[in-house]
Amino acid sequence: MAQIELRNITKSFQGTEVIRDVSLTVQDREFCVFVGPSGCGKSTLLRLIAGLETVTAGQVLIDGQDVTAREPYDRHLSMVFQSYALYPHMTVRQNIAFALETARMPKDQIAAKVTEAARMLRLEGLLDRRPAQLSGGQRQRVAIGRAIVREPKAFLFDEPLSNLDAALRADTRIEIATLHRTLGATMIYVTHDQVEAMTLADRIVVLNAGRVEQSGTPMELYNTPATEFVATFLGSPTMNILRGPAASGFGADSVGLRPEDISIVPAAGDWSGTVRHAEQLGSDTILYLDIAGIGHITIRVPGQIGAGPGTGLHLAFDRTKLHRFRDGRRIT
Amino acid sequence: MKRMGTATRWIVFAIAAFVMNFPVLATLITAFKAPGEVTRNPSLWIEQPTLENFAAVLTVSDRLNIYHYLWNSLAAATIGAVLPIALCFPIAWAMARRGTGRGVLFPLVVNLRAVPLIIFAIPLYMMYSALGLLDTRIGLGLILAVVNLPLAFMLLVNAISEIPLELEEAARMDGARLPRILTRVVLPLCRPAFVTTFVFGFITAWNEFLFGLMLTTQNAVPVTVGASFFFATSGGGVQWGMAAAVMIVAALPPLALGLIMYRRISGSMVTGAVKG
Questions:
Q1: Would you say the C-alpha torsion B131, B137, B139, B142 has a positive or negative sign?
Q2: Across the interface, do A88 and B272 touch by the CB < 8 Å criterion?
Q3: Which residue spans within chain B are E strands per DSSP?
Q4: Alpha helices, DSSP H only, in A149-227?
C-alpha cells in the first residue's frame, strides 16, 4: 500500500481554476474522504491523482515518487467509478480479469484471483453474466471486484454509492468499510454525502471552490470546524448560525450551535420560541422554531416530543458547545 | 372495433407498400413475361409465365457473362465497404475523443458527400491510367471506398462519441494502453456501427454506376454496367424481359444483405455499461 502526497496542485480548465493550490498527504492505509458540495473540485482532484487529468501546476507523489507526468497505468492505482464503467460486452469474469490479462498474468493465477474476488464480494453465481443482466448493487460489487483484483497501491472511489438506493447504500458502505479493514488498503473516497464521509473516513478533507477548507478526523471536523462553511456542511440538520447582536454578544461575527446542543427547558431559559414545524424521527424529534430577535432555529431532541406548530417552548444551550466565527473563520 | 382498426392499418400499409414498390413489382413481373408478351401485355398479369429471360441471363455467352460481372461487383463493393471502416475507425476515435480535426476536417469530409461525383471523373481517369488501376477490381473498389468514406466517417464518429468515456478511462486504470483500449473496448462496442456502415457502404458501392462505366472496360465491369449490355443483345431493340431479369439478378445480393443484417443495424452494445 502507499502514501499519496499532493504538493501545491492547481488545475485549470480553459483558464478557469477548479483546483487551487491544494497540498495534502494521504497516509499509508488511511481511509481519506474528499467531501464538498457539487462543483467544489473533489472529483477533479481524484482524477488528478488517478492520472486521468493532467495537473496545471504542482506535483503528485506516490510513496515519495513523483508520478505527475505518468500515465494512469503507471501509477498502479485502482478506481471505482460513479457509473460503474463496466465493459458491457464482457462477462463479470472477463470484467474482473481484464486488468490481469492486460498485465499478462498466467491464466491459472487469473482464475484463482477472480475466484477469490468473487467469493469476497459474493459474486460467485454471477461470473458468467453480462453487466446488463445485473442489478445496480451487483454492478457496483463487480466494479469493486475489478479494482481489488489488481492489488493496487491505493483505491480511488468516485462517489461509488450515489446510484444506489438508500438501503443498498448503507449495506455497501459497510462492505467498503469491511474491505478497507480486510485489505489494509489506502483508500481515497469522493462523496458529497456527509453521512458516508463521517462513517467511513479516518480523515475527511472538506473542499470548497477548489480549496481545502479543513482536513482532520470526522470528530475533529464536527467538534471544532475551522470555518463556518465546514460547520454548516457537516451535521444534519445543519448547524444554526446566528449573526448580528446575538453573535456580537459573544465577540464574534457569527456563532454556531448544533441542533442537538440546544435543549428544551421547563422555565425561561436563553430563548423562548414558537414551533413552526416538527419532524418525528421516532428516536429523535427535530423542531423548527421561530425566535424573536434571533430568527429561525432548528433543534434536535432525543425521544418523541409532542409539540406541534404554534407550541411555545423555552430553550437553553450549552455555552461550551458554541462555535464562534469571525470573517468566516473559527475564533479560538 | 380493434379488429377494424388493425384491418384499416394493414390496408393502408399494403397500398403504401404497393405504390412505393410498384417499379420493382413491374420489373419483377416483366422478367417472367415472354418477349412477345412484354409489348402486347403491359398489365401486371402474366399470361404465360416463363423463366426464359433468367435462363438467357444466366447462360454464359462469348460476349456476356453475368457471373463475371457479379464477381467484379462483389469484390469491388466489399473493398468499397470494408476499407472506409478500417480507415475511418482510428481517425474517428481521434476526432471523437481528442477533438482532432473536429472543426475543419469533419465538415470537410462530410461535405464530400454533397459534391457531384462526376467532378472527380477526369483527374481520376488520368490518375488511374498512370497507376495502372484502370479496369481493375482493386481500382474500382478504391474509388468506391472514397465514395463511402464520408458516410463511414460520420457513422463511426457518432458511434464512438456515444460510448461512455468512463469505459476507456476504466481500461486506462486497468493498465491498458491505447492499442488495447481500441481493440478490446472501443472496437467491440462499435460492432453495430460497423454493421450499419458495411451494409450501407456495400449497397452504395454495389449500385454505383458512374465509376464502373468510366473506369472499367472488360475485366472489372461491375454488374450495374454489365446489366446494360443485356438490354440489346440481339441488336433488334431493347429486350425488356431480359433487361428486367438481369436487373432482378443484380438487385438480389444487396437486397439479401439488407434483409439479413437489418436487425443488427440498430442494436446497441453499451447497455449496462454505466448506471441506468
A1: negative
A2: yes
A3: none
A4: 166-183, 194-200, 218-223
Q: Write the DSSP string, B219-243.
A: TT--HHHHHHHTTTTTSSS--HHHH
| Gap between the Cα atoms of A274 and A243, Å rounded | 20
- Using an 8 Å Cβ cutoff, are A124 and A111 in contact? no
Task: Tell me the shortest Cα–Cα distance from B276 to chain A, in angstroms.
Answer: 8
Residue of B nearest to A132 (CA): B272
CB contact under 8 A, A83 and B188: no
Helix, strand or coil for residue A227?
strand
Q: Nearest chain A Cα to B189, which residue?
A: A89
String of DSSP letters for A44-100: HHHHHHHTSS--SEEEEEETTEE-TTS-GGGTTEEEE-TT----TTS-HHHHHHHHH
Full DSSP string of A275-322: EEEEEE-SSEEEEEEEETTTEEEEEEEES-----TT-EEEEEE-GGG-
Question: How far, in Å, CA of B6 to CA of A54, rounded?
Answer: 60
- What's the CA gap between A253 and B174, in Å, rounded? 50
pLDDT in tens, A211-255: 999 999 999 999 999 999 999 999 989 999 999 888 888 889 999
- Side-chain half-sphere exposure of A310, counting CA atoms within 13 A: 0
Confidence grade of residue A147 (pLDDT, cut at 50, 70, 90): very high
Residue A242 CA to residue A258 CA, distance in Å, equals: 11
Chain B residues touching A83 at Cβ < 8 A: 164, 166, 273-275
Question: Which B residues in the span 180-239 are in contact with A, Cβ-Cβ below 8 Å?
Answer: 180, 184-185, 188-189
* Residues A127, A134: Cα–Cα separation, whole Å: 11
Looking at every residue in chain A, the average pLDDT score rounds to 92
pTM, whole model, 2 decimals?
0.84
Nearest to A44 by CA among A55, A31, A30: A55
In a mutational test of the B interface, the residue from A87, A139, A146, A155 whose CB has the highest number of chain B CBs within 10 Å is A87
Rounded Cα distance between A42 and A201, Å, is: 15
How many CB atoms lie under 10 A from the CB of residue A154? 26
B270 is written with which cell numbers?
A: 453499451
